[in-house]
Design goal:
The protein is α/β, with parallel strands linked by helices and about 325 residues long. The chain is built from 13 helices and eleven strands. The strands form two sheets. It has an eight-stranded parallel β-barrel with strand order 1-2-4-5-6-7-8-11, surrounded by five helices. A two-stranded antiparallel sheet has the order 9-10.
């Protein structure tokens, strides 16, 4: 069985179980519809068959437009990916207006803001014939009752998705910070306990491997291999690396700091069947060379690992070695 989806026009291969892709902020394609088409072609050549779109609605500035797909473009961008055989997942808007903390002080206000995003997730799910995953962040530790606020809002979101009959939710495991032992979504143990307490089959964990790895600095009990009880709750994965000097994350996999292969091994062995999303920031990719080539190198590393682990065939468009050589050549000439 191949663990990497091999995209072919008009064909859905149910024997593959892991889709790979990346968080495709518009900055990656210069906010240009023409470049978007070229960008998706390039992703397909690297073995991608899924993407994660950060949606936004309402007022925006230039920075927001570089990171988010704006509301007027939601369907157009979705359809461009679908025309290439991609499935689309959604990351909730990053604007403070959409923070879960707001649910306690202004529940009706955040519901009005969030409802079109939920409708988009349901619509994407129906159009692509499989669940679109909505990735969300819990309420912050500075909130009076972050756990309760998150639980209440997640229950409402899940109820809205249930009414449509499609879509699911992944609560992201976030950076541990200074309160990893007490905040409900900052360690494997606490986030797993929270998801089990919710008891909603529509809600799982977005396992961000780099944020998880950050806990290794302050938690002597941290290990590379999560417990099965954590892994069985994972319904989405974020993957990126860290810099060598300062441990900042969202770097390309070429950094080689995080032992992501060892961390992924038990998840792949448990027959994980959802997406792995490369969450690499454009500005950190460009520090290593031409950003598309750097991104292609990360894809090659991930695809090569999954093929080796799952006995899958390599993607026919480009071998792992070809992409890495191209990326190295581009770096040398810049």
């Amino acid at each position: 069985m191949s663990f990497v989806r091999q995209w072919m026009p008009g064909r859905y291969d149910s024997n593959t179980v892991i889709r790979i892709g990346n968080a495709s902020s518009p900055r990656w394609y210069d906010l240009s519809p023409v470049r978007l088409e070229e960008y998706i072609d390039r992703l397909s050549g690297w073995g991608a068959s899924t993407t994660e779109l950060v949606l936004h609605r309402g007022e925006f500035d230039d920075r927001t437009a570089r990171v988010h797909v704006l509301e007027e473009d939601w369907i157009q961008v979705f359809e461009r990916y679908r025309s290439h055989g991609f499935t689309c997942n959604v990351h909730a808007p990053l604007d403070p207006r959409f923070k879960f903390d707001r649910f306690e002080s202004d529940p009706e206000g955040i519901k009005r803001e969030f409802l079109p995003v939920i409708h988009a997730v349901a619509d994407f799910s129906q159009r692509q014939g499989e669940d679109c995953t909505l990735v969300v962040h819990g309420a912050s530790g500075g909130h009076n009752n972050p756990r309760e606020a998150t639980a209440a809002f997640l229950s409402w979101v899940s109820g809205e998705l249930a009414r449509s009959g499609s879509g699911r939710i992944a609560l992201e495991l976030r950076s541990p910070g200074r309160s990893m032992s007490t905040v409900f979504d900052r360690s494997r143990r606490t986030i797993a306990e929270f998801i089990r307490w919710l008891g909603d089959e529509r809600i799982g964990i977005c396992w961000d491997l780099a944020h998880d790895w950050e806990a290794s600095e302050s938690d002597p009990a941290w290990t590379q291999s999560p417990d099965p009880e954590f892994l069985e709750l994972v319904n989405h994965v974020h993957l990126h690396d860290a810099s060598i000097g300062d441990r900042l994350v969202h770097h390309p996999l070429q950094s080689g700091r995080i032992p992501w292969q060892s961390m992924l091994k038990p998840l792949v062995g448990a027959k994980y069947d959802s997406a792995i999303t490369l969450e690499i920031r454009y500005r950190l990719a460009i520090s290593l060379g031409e950003p598309w080539h750097v991104l292609g190198g990360s894809y090659a590393m991930l695809r090569g690992y999954l093929n080796a682990t799952g006995n899958g065939e390599d993607h026919p468009a480009q071998s792992t070695e070809t992409v890495l050589i191209e990326q190295m050549h581009e770096t040398e000439t810049n």
